Amino acid sequence: MKQQAVFLFALAFVLSGAEVARAGKPVGVGGGGAKTPPNPDIVYLSDDGSTAALSQAAVRGVVLATGTDVSLQRSKAGRTYGSIAWSPDGQRMAWIELGLGMVGTPHSIVVAAPGGKPVVVYTAAPGDGNPMASTGTDTLAWVPDYTDPAVSHLVFAGDPPTGIYALRIVDGQPVGVPEQLMATVVPPANVGAVFPGAFAVSPRGRHLAFAGSGSTDPAYGVWVLPLCTADHTPFLLLSMRDIGGTGWAPVMSTDWSRHGERLALSVLTDSPWRDLKIAALNYTYDTASGVEQILGSSGIWTIDLSARFGTASSEHSPQWGPGSGPGGCQRIVFSQSSDAGRGMYLLDIGDGQLGGCTINSPQPLGAKWPRALDWK
Q1: Gyration radius of the chain's alpha carbons
Q2: How many CB atoms lie within 10 A of CB 30?
Q3: Which of 49, 169, 255, 329 is the most buried (most CB within 10 A)?
Q4: Quick check: 357 and 350 in contact, CB under 8 A?
Q5: pTM here?
């Protein structure tokens, strides 16, 4: 995950090494022949290929060392496929479910370890005074606490009031009520979408990038929200002109690279098709002081995959993997949709280009109808 990490050219060796590096003591393994739970690198939500399954999804995973696709939670009515997030320690995952058929239709954040039983850690219903977790795209992130490794925060987009909230998690248990980090300004009519989404956490967990509007500014773009200061006022990182030129190009999902110097964005440029774009960031981190700074962007470019997938295709939910290589090569995984269905792919991206890396053309993984995903 460090910028100086050595890039391993043999794909199988890279993926196997990544798996070994992440593997901890298996949960539930011991006397009595207990079954070893799956240990996937990537978790994702699957809609099972049904266009009608807008509120039903399965939780699945991919073990990169073996290329194995595993079932983690069977499809369930009310489980939305827009957001999923690994915990900072890579032991649990979180997603959002709706209480279908119940009065008021509560929204819940649910947590489970691979192979474990899901547990509701937060629920809100209309009128109860608590913010309801958004079912939008990429509206959930799990952020480490910068002072205490036993503490983390589930950050989610909530409404009402519309904004960004953080639920404190201590030793795996929710504590207190969500703290509002930012309230979203209501813009004048016809300004466009403002609700926060497309969450991405910085490498040290000090900042959250999101698409939408700032707390006092209705301008649409990609903003950065400070998480570790008393003042959570966001600043604009990428304007609409930066992202899409003169057109309307909302960002649907994002991820922050492990070395901090790139954002990957799935951008709606020609409805319903989405392009994969990469923003180069002016990013610094001082190890001695623990200060993480984002000083703007030095440019944004499109990863044109039309030759591989055709022009009528979409790249969704990009997620960076660990490690880096020569020429700025970094590995990314994304889900992709076209007339042929949905798939999941690995790809290496160099400095502003494709080519010169190990995986220069998208390499398919054996995933089943992937939607939102997260790489441990």
Answers
A1: 20
A2: 9
A3: 255
A4: yes
A5: 0.87
